[in-house]
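Supplementary Methods S3. Input chains for the assembly prediction are listed below.
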Amino acid sequence: MAAIANVALTNYIKFQVQEEDYLYHGLTGNIIQLDDLSKEMIDTFRSKGDQIADTTVLAENILLQEKSDFSQVLNELEQLEIVRKDQNKSQRFSVTPPAPKTTENMPVKTLVFHLVNECNLRCTYCYAGDGEYGAPQKYMTVDTADRAIQFLMENSFEEKDVNIVLFGGEPFLNWKTLKYVVERATSEGEKRGKKVGFSLTTNGTKMNAEQMAFLNKYKVMVSVSMDGTKEAHDRYRPMAGGQGSYDRVSKNVEKLMDIHTTAPIGTRVTVVKDFEKLETSLRHLLSKGFYEVGFAPVTETNMQLALDEEDLGELLNQFEELSNLFVEHALKNEYIGFSNLTNLLKELHTGTNKAYGCGAGLGFFAVSPDGGLFLCHRFNENEEFRLGDIYFGIDQKKRTNMLNELHVDRKSTCQSCALKHICSGGCYYEAMERQGDYRAPNAHYCNWMHDWITIGLKAYVKILQHNPSFLDKISGTTKERCISN
Amino acid sequence: MKHLKSLNWKGKMIEQTVDLEKEPEVQGLALLPMGCTSLFDPGWETDFSGTSLEGVCQPHYRDIYGCYGDCWWAAQVPDGLTNYGSWADECPVAANDWRKLKYVKP
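Predicted structure tokens for the full assembly:
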């Protein structure tokens, strides 16, 4: 007697929009509309099969006994690699990109410059501990910056587009080096036929008109950290002296919008317990002239600040409200800058297939004021995550090992998850803080991410039905950038 | 695909790849020339060298009878097949006699 052949409906989310049925397949990134027969088959699958996370397994003969026509759907699903019959059959669209065997030839594309380990604000929730990262050296000298630029130029190999992130602490506290980095990297790039893109994260308290004109000249993409209205902002973002920072930032932002017109200016809201209504924050910040607003939950172990289950539920409800607002405008061909959704829609459109939570250690590194190389800016000055330095180069052995450890195939709970290739386990720093191990998947966000991605899928389908070109427009280019400050 | 419809850019690419590998349901008649559109070698009418390089930049009048006479290519010339059968009677060689072509008034 032949062994019973099981079929697996793999890594999927089923969802509905206006009573029509759709399926998102996480391994291939395909979003599919189902007809009546395929809907019926999937319902049968779900009612009779065994569910392992987002994967359902069922014996083929049981399925076909129900209705022999199901074989047509099964065949189509197998061709699209959504259903898997034979574990040994090689797959093309659904495979996870493997961990790199060697890293010597992998180009560095983005380098975060910690220009200074110091900040003039004392944000209650800051992961950098007042911007100092507990580090000995505070300021990056011009000499170190120069060497770091050389490092990027040499280690980006044939890459034509490279990025420099001007970061801190508060980068404006080391304006001399900041200015040098931008001018020097631009001319060095021109010499080598590379285009250098700059982005800058600032608290917005320390910019004068001359500096703004400089950012404008070099098309630096600026992100100002603001938490919404004055009341919300001043709650957790005080100056070192204790007074609120809103008025100062607000005045500078107004000036910045006038002077800096060559690159979009965005803002980032850190979402902390008892947060202000997001729509209020969004509308307030868009009225200041920001192109986009991104919301990021705080990374905290202190549960007085961190979001608990209830807060996360509320965050999700409000994200859904903002998404509905976004769709309403998108159908009129208007853009409401809710960047969390914009980024998600881009990923859904292009069918992201990632084996890593982010680009850290692949093409993305942070350099500390003394020239040390770190996995990312959030691990700045943490020796465990030091991957060499700009003088002697990357510690390739440590890099290869770390990338092996961080690969999504090492995260057992991710294997049957529909978000395996889009979340890939999430942020390593967040995992270290909340799960106690940087290699662990961010299990505390799993349900939340499923719900959020389902909201995104519904928004995607609604926009696709009535204004499909909008999706092509927003997906024009994607940049390799970390989503967390 | 009869039962499933890929909606996003990625899904469409996958479906396209899968479709390309199937046995075609319809095949072009490549061996039976039915006019230049079935030959897939633009420029053949001005290039007898076989290199596809000669005469590829000929002025449009080289095509005029093809566009006019049997209308195989839509162009801004009168249609000789149904309405203006004698339009080019006085112009046997377009390169020499193009001045003799007349305007038509539809």
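The first strand of chain A starts at residue 6 and ends at 9. Chain A has 15 helices and 17 strands.
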